[in-house]
Amino acid sequence: GNSVTQMEGPVTLSEEAFLTINCTYTATGYPSLFWYVQYPGEGLQLLLKATKADDKGSNKGFEATYRKETTSFHLEKGSVQVSDSAVYFCALLYSSASKIIFGSGTRLSIRP
Amino acid sequence: DSGVTQTPKHLITATGQRVTLRCSPRSGDLSVYWYQQSLDQGLQFLIQYYNGEERAKGNILERFSAQQFPDLHSELNLSSLELGDSALYFCASSPGTSTYSYEQYFGPGTRLTVT
After folding, report:
1. Interior CA angle at A23 toward A20 and A26, to 5°?
2. How far apart are CA B96 and CA B115, in angstroms?
3. CB A17 within 8 A of CB A44
4. Separation CA B57–CA B65 (nearest Å)
5. Reduced to 3 states, what is the DSSP secondary structure of residue B33?
6. Closest chain B residue to A91, measured at CA
């Protein structure tokens, strides 16, 4: 079946460090891919998305590229800030379905 | 603030009881989605309603049910509660039926604790 696997957390980095959170997926066909972010005490917010192979989603300095050949959608940011501390979820969706399949989430903590 | 409201924020109840969680979507959104977030199961889609009708079903237990009212608010009913039902329940809304086309806006969640 369809699934999303993302790297285990927690991930702890110093401010201004480079961030990568790995995400791979298993799916037939061509799903859309998403990264959601959950700040403490809040609901999920869509961070970025990509709807077809080689698309790059970007927002707030974060980016991720839809790689069909490696079935991956890794999240990157060049210089993280303390305010980026949150839980990040990778997710996929087929256009024919309504439900989003989420990964297990990766908790990111940034030290000043 | 996403514009989606959920009440109550916290709920503590005993096993075997029944509770109702309420969600008001963003103004103009016709679709409402319910999700359960727990430590062992992660974030799981439960059910979607569009303009009052059930549109998609996920991993929703038979003890759980939902509905969407004419004013578009939605309620999730959880009955015969078990300890394992303790989780954060999120509601999300979007303008249309397909999440492919429309971003989902999440509410702050209701934390349910079953003792």
Report:
1. 165
2. 38
3. no
4. 11
5. strand
6. B43
pLDDT in the model for residue B113: 97
Q: How large is the average pLDDT for residues A27-49?
A: 89
Full DSSP string of B59-81: S--TTEEEEE-TTS-EEEEE-S-
Distance CA B11, CA B111 (A): 6
Kindly state whether B4 is in contact with chain A, defined as any CB-CB distance less than 8 angstroms.
yes
Structure-block tokens of residue B40: 């062992």
Q: Which residues of A touch B106 (CB under 8 A)?
A: 43-45
* Length of chain B in terms of residues written: 115
- Cis peptide upstream of residue B8 (ω within 30 degrees of 0): yes
Distance from CA of A104 to the nearest CA of B (A): 5
pLDDT digits 0-9 by tens, B32-64: 999 999 888 888 999 999 999 998 898 899 999
Contacts of A103 in chain B (CB under 8 A): 42
Which of B33, B43, B105 to mutate to test binding with chain A, by most A CBs within 10 Å of its CB? Answer: B43
pLDDT of res. A23: 97
How confident is the model over A84-93, as pLDDT tens digits? Answer: 999 999 998 8
Q: What is the pLDDT of residues A41-65, one digit of tens each?
A: 888 999 999 988 999 999 999 999 9
Give residues with Cβ within 8 angstroms of B13, minimum separation 6: B19, B81, B112, B113, B114, B115
Interface membership of B51 toward A (CB under 8 Å): no
> What is the rounded distance in angstroms from the CA atom of residue B100 to the CA atom of residue A22?
23
